[in-house]
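Q: Convert this sequence to structure tokens.
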Amino acid sequence: MHRATNNTSSKDLRGWWTSPPRSGLRLIISPLEYRHLHAWGRVRIASGIVLTGLGTVTLCFGGNDRKTYGWAAWFLAGAAANLAYGYWELSIDPETDQHSGGRP
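A:
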């Protein structure tokens, strides 16, 4: 018979988290996102563009008070983070050569 052990949950979670083999900083990406890296990279870049637009609109039409600059800085910081992370995801995508149509 099989004995029940108390440490199976940590092995199960660790096994799930490392299910597609990867190393280094790639381990901070969730497994679901890592399996569809190209699509998630594009989604992050698109959301970065949207946040850049929101920051620009806030600066243009928000007025001249501290609250306007705070919201604009919040939008633009989020845009910078999404653009950088999306670019990083696209650069580490192992299937990038296949998506580019075989161009050199």
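The chain has five helices and no strands.
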